[in-house]
């Protein structure tokens, strides 16, 4: 596009080009006389202004040397860190640490022995309690069986002796006397006459049923 449509020169561009060509020709003709003391001062001032402006825009260039010691200090800090780290590693294998580990192992072994003894004592006590329970249970059971057997024998002996003595009516009257007075009920029948009849049968061998029933 630039080849086909070349840039159009304006009037200002033509004037600048003309003035620059004119000054160049004058400088060639006059030489050193072309520049004055005021021109030198303006040139030096403009140069100083440019240098100051550059320094303001790029202050890092001047501080470069001042930052180098900081880098060295940071390196020293890392060296101290590495040295302390190496010292920690060395401390783990020191004699006090070894002695502490040995004491710790002994304490652990001692606690394990104590705990094992407590465990065995609890088991022995539990087993003894179980044995005592079954021993007492069996003993009580045996004693109860003996007492029951004795009561049965006494009851049978008493029964047999009761059946051997007197007549049937004698034994009936004996049972009535042992029972005593019966509690009153809603039954309106009079039992006194029946009791009198049973008493009349007592001690008589020739009355009906006196010998009992086979």
TrEMBL record:
Q: What Pfam family does this protein match (any one)?
A: Clathrin_lg_ch
One biological process term from GO is:
clathrin-dependent endocytosis
Q: Where in the cell is it found?
A: Cytoplasmic vesicle membrane; Membrane, Coated pit
Q: Where is this region: Disordered?
A: 1-113
Ranges annotated as biased composition (Basic and acidic residues): 98-113
**Molecular-function GO terms, alphabetical:** clathrin heavy chain binding; structural molecule activity
What superkingdom heads the lineage?
A: Eukaryota
Query: What keywords is this UniProt entry annotated with?
Result: Coated pit, Cytoplasmic vesicle, Membrane
One GO cellular component term:
clathrin coat of trans-Golgi network vesicle
Q: How does it sit in the membrane?
A: Peripheral membrane protein
Record field: compositional bias (Low complexity): 57-73, 83-94
Protein task: Clathrin is the major protein of the polyhedral coat of coated pits and vesicles.
The UniProt similarity line reads: Belongs to the clathrin light chain family.
Q: Which PANTHER family match?
A: CLATHRIN LIGHT CHAIN (PTHR10639)
Q: Provide the protein name.
A: Clathrin light chain
């Amino acid at each position: 596009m630039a080849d086909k449509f070349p840039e159009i020169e304006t009037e200002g561009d033509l004037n600048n080009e003309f003035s620059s060509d004119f000054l160049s020709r004058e400088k060639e003709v006059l030489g050193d006389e072309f520049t004055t003391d005021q021109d030198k001062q303006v040139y030096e001032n403009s140069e100083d202004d440019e240098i100051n402006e550059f320094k303001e825009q790029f202050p890092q260039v001047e501080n470069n040397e001042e930052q180098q010691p900081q880098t060295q200090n940071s390196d020293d800090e890392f060296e101290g860190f590495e040295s302390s780290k190496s010292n920690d590693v060395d401390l783990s294998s020191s004699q006090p640490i070894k002695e502490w580990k040995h004491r710790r192992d002994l304490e652990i072994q001692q606690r394990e022995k104590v705990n094992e003894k407590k465990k065995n004592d609890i088991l022995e006590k539990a087993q003894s309690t179980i044995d005592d329970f079954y021993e007492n249970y069996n003993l009580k059971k045996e004693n109860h069986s003996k007492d029951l057997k004795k009561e049965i024998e006494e009851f049978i002996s008493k029964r047999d002796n009761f059946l051997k003595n007197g007549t049937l009516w004698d034994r009936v009257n004996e049972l009535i006397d042992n029972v005593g007075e019966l509690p009153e009920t809603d039954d309106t029948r009079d039992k006194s006459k029946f009791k009198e009849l049973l008493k009349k049968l007592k001690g008589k061998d020739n009355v009906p049923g006196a010998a009992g029933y086979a």
